[in-house]
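Exercise: predict the fold of this chain.
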Amino acid sequence: MSGDLSLGPVVRSEWIKFRTVRSTLTGVFVMFVLTIGLGALIAWATRSHFHTLSGPEQLTFDPVSTSLIGVVFSQFAIGVIGTLLITSEYASGLIRTTLGAVPKRILLVSGKLVVLITSMFVVTEIACFAAFFVGQRIFLGAVPTASLTSNSVLRAVVFAGVYLTLLSVVSFSLGLIIRHSAAAIGIFVSIVLILPLLSLALPQSWRDHIVKFEPSELGNAMTSVVTPSGDMSALSSLVMLVIYAAVVLVIGTLLFQRRDA
């Protein structure tokens, strides 16, 4: 491949590797199970106990974010997929062979990103729309439902998939920086799970200004029909998450270009 260093052949090569690796297939399967399966379970539990909610709680109930609650769990599967896209090659020693075939490292990163972003966007959107339709079907007749004819509802469902896709870029970038699967996945989990828990120990005045910038809270704002109190708007949250992903990616790419394999 070194004689034809264009993006197309690199993308094709990376796509073959990506779709034939067992960890990728397992990760995608787990993502579907968590997004749709857990969403359905929580939707069914909500339907069963909806009558016990107070009047204000019923009025402010968001059937969209509830049906998409599985995204909170599937983001970890996405993180593993993104990380292993690069760290698995370091673990197996295949990175030397890959760099021998594609010595232009920025081209290699670009090829991997095209494959990762395209594939993750497609599968996460399918999973999120499926979770939405399953949830609304479960709610039907007992709980208020939502329709995709509403722009805010459609935006929330689409942004759920975008959120997961951007997280895959973040986890891939962490893999570029750290080059060790367990460590990169551990840091990713800390960012999306441990960080929000630690922020609970902060004074309320600090939390009001900090929490809305946390990646998980950005995802919450992106997948809600009505912006949660204290959060940025869905569009502003998307922009902030794109900035996060871009910054980590730039750092990872620079380190990848300067380090030895």
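Check your answer against the key: Residues 105-139 form the longest helix (35 residues).
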